[in-house]
Amino acid sequence: MDTIKRINDSLIDAVSVSNTPDCPAKLAEAIDYTVFSGGARIRPKLCMAVAIACKEDDCDVTNAAAIAIELLHCASLIHDDLPCFDNAATRRGKASVHRKFGEPLAVLTGDALIVLAFQVLARHTNGQPARLCHLLKIISDSVGAPNGICAGQAWESEPTVSLAKYQRAKTGALFSAATMAGAAAAGYEPEDWRELGDCIGEAYQVADDIRDVAGDPEKMGKPTGQDAALGRPSACQELGLAGAIKRFKSLMQQAVDSIPECPGADALKMHMLQESERFLPKEIIRSAA
Amino acid sequence: MDTIKRINDSLIDAVSVSNTPDCPAKLAEAIDYTVFSGGARIRPKLCMAVAIACKEDDCDVTNAAAIAIELLHCASLIHDDLPCFDNAATRRGKASVHRKFGEPLAVLTGDALIVLAFQVLARHTNGQPARLCHLLKIISDSVGAPNGICAGQAWESEPTVSLAKYQRAKTGALFSAATMAGAAAAGYEPEDWRELGDCIGEAYQVADDIRDVAGDPEKMGKPTGQDAALGRPSACQELGLAGAIKRFKSLMQQAVDSIPECPGADALKMHMLQESERFLPKEIIRSAA
Predict the structure, then answer these.
(1) Domain boundary residue among A188, A214, A245?
(2) Which domain holds residue A284?
(3) What is the ipTM of this complex?
(4) pLDDT interval class at B217 (50, 70, 90)
(5) B111 in the same domain as B23
(6) For chain B, what is the radius of gyration of the CA atoms?
(7) Same domain, B40 and B168
(8) Chain A neighbors of B107, CB-CB under 8 A
(9) Total structural domains in chain A?
């Protein structure tokens, strides 16, 4: 089955628990609105690609791991957009959750999606309790304290912060969780797959910085030049545009080289090359040359 | 070991993961401030009392279940106090988390505590993967949608709501989770223990309503008469004070009667009587007579 279809079917199934008269209607609507708002599904695709490379023997477990990661990503976006953080009016070209449903429901929808990630893990890994232990640890650590998304976001409230530590927690941790959970879902040793996720997470962040400098705002659906305008640290500011592109390529190469021995290593390398093009389209590299 | 000491030691251990230089200092401080602000630990005590009655054979698993439930309770209080909900300046006589640490950290501390509950389950149930599956399902369902705390709170955004459904989700669900998780932690069938939690959860809510009418604001550390002043539905409004007291006693009796056969049933019944007195001190019953 097509990976995107697998992800969407599993998300529909996950969200269906709240589509009952037992659930407050606005909460159910806000969950649906958030989860199906056109995300690129980069993290669950990565998780599935690793599980497939490891010759997954239980699709349900892979699906649960991949979907849990995507739900946590969605939750983090809602809370990031709240007035007390970015106060974002839009997300992916649509009204942000708090603008559409009000702030109380935005807080609760984020909370409910965090919890839903763990409900999904509980519901779909029953045949594999040992794997559930690994998955629960990997995935919960990647969003909590001290090294997960919540901690990453909390660095913004500190007077000083190491940029690397901030980005690793806020962005990188969920990418590492994606590769490690993909391996764990297939019964492989997750630690061997950490470097792959680390490299892709950092490459994703560098690509984001590059697109902010050299991307086409029309195509991206959001304004460029924001990092410089807001004085935010970025790979381009640190390395220059050409240096940042070089860094991106080197990280993606390191990612490919880090792939451990597994039945589907070659197909996974192909997936990495496709994702590389998606993170940073060739036209941006050309236009920056 | 004394139950309260067991709970506090386990909470100290759980929170210690964020007491490292890897964690943003203010987030670590806010987590600590929230968790050790003098809560009565009613839910984890109940969870442990059930596990002990079931002759627990693995204290670590009981501790993890009890602490996960308390951390989720703490998280719900922080988010409830936010300006977009109750806008509470104080909690348990101290500044609320958003008043002391600011709104961004209050949102993140709530999120981090939700996640910490699951990190604790992952970390301390490794020897018992089958029990972890039960615990994860029971505990995550009790805080998510459609029947857990998030859903309970979201009913406040709906034009109409069944009071019973609202209170069951917002307050009762975590009590049912406490008794069911206590049983599951000891390897017992959790479903047999649901009625006990349901009754105690409802009794707790009725007692709260009664204290609001007949309690001593000095002793409780918070003003009384709030339900009537704010037009909130309550057991006293519905049944009158004497009727509410009768309802409370009947629920506690039903709770005691529902206790399934287990090695420590008698001690558990004693625990219920002690808790009953804590929920609704005799002096309040006397003063209302």
Answers:
(1) A188
(2) 194-289
(3) 0.96
(4) confident
(5) yes
(6) 19
(7) yes
(8) 79, 82, 84-85, 107
(9) 2
Query: Do B145 and A18 count as a contact with CB atoms less than 8 A apart?
Result: yes
- Nearest C-alpha in A relative to B141: A119
Report the predicted TM-score, pTM, of the whole model to 2 decimal places: 0.96
Identify whether residues B108 and B210 lie together within a single domain. Answer: no
Within A85-221, where are the H helices?
97-101, 103-124, 129-143, 149-154, 163-167, 173-185, 194-214, 217-220
What element of type H or E holds B95? strand B94-95
Give rounded-to-5 percent helix, strand, coil for chain A: 75, 0, 25
Which of B188, B206, B225 is the endpoint of a domain?
B188
Q: Tell whether A130 and A173 lie within a shared domain.
A: yes
Mutate to test the interface with B, among A33, A72, A78, A84 (most CBs of B within 10 A): A84
Best residue of A79, A157, A166 to probe chain B, by most B CBs closer than 10 Å: A157
pLDDT at residue A1, rounded to an integer: 67
Strands A90-91 and A94-95: antiparallel
Spell B240-279 as b/e; 16+ CB within 10 A means b. Answer: ebeebbebbeebbebbbebbbebebeeebeebbeebbeeb
Cβ neighbours around B203 below 10 Å, total: 26
Which residues are paired to B90 by β-bridges?
A: B95
Per-chain mean pLDDT for chain A: 94
B132 and B196 in a single domain? The answer is: no
Do B165 and B195 lie in one domain? The reply is no
Distance separating alpha carbons of residues B83 and A103, to the nearest angstrom:
10
Q: CATH number, domain at A12?
A: 1.10.600.10
Compute the distance between CA of residue A15 and CA of residue A31 in angstroms, rounded to an integer.
7
In B64-123, the residues whose Cβ lies within 8 Å of chain A are 75, 79, 82, 84-85, 102-105, 107-108, 110-112, 114-116, 118-119, 121-123
Across chain B, mean pLDDT equals 94
Give tens-digit pLDDT for A138-184. 999 999 999 999 999 999 999 988 888 999 999 999 999 999 999 99
In terms of domains, do A183 and A198 share one?
A: no
Tell me how far apart the alpha carbons of residues B128 and B65 are, in angstroms, rounded to a whole number.
Answer: 12
Cross-strand pairs, A55 = none
- Do the Cβ atoms of A82 and B119 come within 8 Å? no
A20, A136: one domain: yes
With CA atoms as reference, report the closest residue to B34 among B114, B120, B143.
B114
